[in-house]
């Protein structure tokens, strides 16, 4: 368990990532004894943080990024005042978000992250494989004011663009989208997005939104593709960058100004596809998306617009 003293030390070391910070400097900045510094460093090491220590001029303590995810490792990189929860294990980050919203444990926009999901949820109730250390499993819990305007198809597409912008910024790779919620890299699915809503029964208005994002970063032991063989940056940095891009779009996603980025990377346009939407299975030619992120599908009976669904079959 990270104490406030250890957290303050960790913040300082992370701010000087990969650089040496002397015990004397830490003691002076934080008004702590050298013994308190040593004890807190030992606790951080026990908690899984990779902190080197060496004696001598120009040495001291040095934080080396690793796979340990933590609130402290994320929040110092955020551009928005967002609450962040990090768990070693959850059944599902979306399930936790729903329960916390119902109990009012969460009353403000919050990011929930798990190192492992034992029952990660995908589209239409499918399982999303979520092993330790190899992916990013995050949900955004988003309480709403009663008069909030919600456009689900724009929220889903904006979330996909946020992931793409994060990966482009940090790893210089470009992913593609399979409408509406699948993320692809090198023709293999590497992740997905699950958007859910909570409704106030009396007013029949949305009371909260939940956006779950699962991204397979390095796991090769799955039918999914992987973003990379080995990460050169920490998952804390990846999570923080995604949170920043998500909220940069979420605060104004209804304007749809990001849709050109989505269209540029949208797969299967001009092809015959089969879409499962609710209880319907519809086949037609995918012509693109409209200004609300809805799929334009040309069917034998005419053109229709779909706000949600899943592409099941693609015919080349």
UniProtKB/TrEMBL annotation:
Q: Does the keyword DNA-binding apply?
A: yes
Q: Where is the BPL/LPL catalytic domain?
A: 86-216
Residues annotated as DNA-binding are: 23-42
Q: What are the EC numbers?
A: 6.3.4.15
Q: Where exactly are the transmembrane stretches of this chain?
A: none
Enumerate the catalysed reactions. Answer: biotin + L-lysyl-[protein] + ATP = N(6)-biotinyl-L-lysyl-[protein] + AMP + diphosphate + H(+)
| Entry superkingdom | Bacteria
What's the protein called, per UniProt? Bifunctional ligase/repressor BirA
User: Which organism does this record belong to?
Assistant: Pseudolactococcus hodotermopsidis
């Amino acid at each position: 368990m990270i104490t406030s003293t250890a957290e303050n030390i960790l913040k300082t070391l992370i701010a000087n990532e990969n650089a040496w910070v002397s015990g004397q400097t830490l003691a002076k900045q934080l008004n702590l004894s050298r013994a308190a510094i040593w004890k807190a460093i030992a606790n951080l090491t026990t908690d899984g943080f990779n902190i080197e220590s060496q004696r001598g001029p120009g040495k001291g303590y040095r934080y080396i990024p690793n796979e340990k995810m933590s609130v402290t490792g994320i929040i110092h990189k955020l551009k928005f005042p967002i609450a962040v929860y990090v768990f070693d294990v959850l059944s599902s980050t979306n399930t936790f978000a729903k329960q916390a919203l119902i109990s009012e444990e969460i009353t403000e926009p919050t990011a929930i992250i798990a190192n492992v999901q034992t029952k990660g949820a995908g589209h239409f109730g499918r399982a999303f494989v979520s092993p330790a250390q190899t992916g990013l499993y995050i949900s955004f819990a988003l309480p709403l004011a009663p008069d909030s305007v919600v456009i689900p198809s724009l929220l889903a597409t904006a979330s996909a663009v946020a992931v793409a912008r994060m990966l482009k910024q940090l790893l210089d790779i470009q992913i593609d989208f399979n409408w509406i919620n699948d993320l692809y890299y090198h023709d293999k699915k590497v992740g997905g997005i699950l958007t859910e809503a909570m409704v106030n029964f009396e007013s029949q208005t949305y009371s909260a939104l939940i956006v779950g994002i699962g991204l397979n970063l390095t796991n090769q032991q799955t039918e999914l593709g992987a973003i990379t063989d080995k990460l050169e940056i920490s998952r804390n940095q990846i999570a923080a960058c995604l949170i920043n891009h998500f909220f940069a779009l979420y605060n104004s996603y209804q304007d749809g100004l990001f849709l050109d980025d989505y269209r540029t990377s949208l797969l299967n346009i001009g092809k015959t596809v089969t879409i499962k939407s609710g209880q319907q299975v519809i086949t037609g030619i995918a012509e693109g998306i409209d200004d609300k992120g809805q799929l334009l599908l040309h069917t034998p009976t005419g053109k229709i617009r779909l706000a949600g669904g899943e592409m099941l079959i693609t015919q080349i």
